[in-house]
Amino acid sequence: MKFGAFVPQGLRWDLPLDVPDTDHWAIMLNVAQTIESSAFDSVWVYDHLQAYPPSDWAEAVHQTAKSSSTGVRPEPETHIVPEPTREVTYEAWALMAALAATTDTVRLGQMCTCNAYRHPSYLAKVAASIDVISNGRLEMGIGGGWDGAEREHDGYGYAFLAPAERLGMLAEGVEIMKALWTEDEVTYEGMYYNLRGAICQPRPVQKPHIPFWIAGGGEQITLRIAARYPAYTNFGRDVDEFRHKSEVLRGHCDDLGTDYNAIVRSISLNIVCGENEAEVDEKKAWLKGHLSEYISDDEARKTASLFDAMSGTPDQIVSRLKEWEAVGVGYAIVYFPDAAYDTSSIELFARDVKPQFN
Questions:
Q1: pLDDT digits (tens, 9 = 90+) for 187-226
Q2: What integer pLDDT is reported at residue 117 of this predicted model?
Q3: Which residues face 186 on adjacent strands?
Q4: What domains are there in the chain, each with its CATH number?
Q5: What b/e string do you get for 133-168 counting C-beta neighbours within 10 Å, with b at 16 or more?
Q6: Which portions of the chain are predicted below pLDDT 50?
Q7: φ, ψ for residue 3 (rounded to 5)?
């Protein structure tokens, strides 16, 4: 199993709010370089344009995952659309360029780029440039956009389409990016995008092209796109759901004649890691206290509870990760909520958890 880790970027209120914005880059870079020096395989960022209260963001993500799993969208009166706040959130692809120039070996990814925020021809050009700057270290995380981002779309002037349309745009977008990375000139006529002789130079360093990470567990469209471009996926809230989605993905691979075993299936996990149970409790208490500075105690507890399933000592985390490994997880991307304040969780995980899987 390989491992990546997120850098704090403000979305989850994980950057200090009592320091000047000009101090944030130094904090993010320190975390990224700690991840790299700790021999993680990759550094990751989120692709969001606005910050949200952590409890609202968490609930909306949970709701979107449930909708993806069942194929049923929540009723309008219960549909949660997080209200954006004015806290900082750093843009994903600006961070990709900055990290490409300030790291040396670690791979760089986004979980995941929202296809609707950038025209795929433009995104292909940006990604190719960053792949060259990083000497071939870029991962292309891409998805159709989550149901909770309605205000983010509206705020920035992007049409918030129905899920089927967003996923239709995703399918065309991935096709366009692959074409621009592998062909001299691209003319494309689709339902959502049209190109007339687009050229992408420089080409990516990676051959045949930058690997796609198709994020999301939508069974009819998203997983079929993943089967068409076999590289990486990211889905699953728990082991049972992951196992089910994997079988759906296998079915699409069989239909399309692609190699299911060539796809690395990944998950994203929230982790608090401590030397012993007392330290784990101390770090979880810090997280609740930190969040309580900005949101109510009840909301802070609700948000902190997202970390319960995978929090623990190295031995406890290894045991839980072995369960994921047993159902076919080949890559885990982990999020440490205290990384901007204390990198000891990252270092402890790298020292005592990672070696059990390499």
A1: 999 999 999 999 999 999 999 999 999 999 999 999 999 9
A2: 95
A3: 198
A4: 2-356 (3.20.20.30)
A5: bbeebbbbbbbbbbbbbbebbeeeebebbebeebbb
A6: 68-79
A7: -135, 135
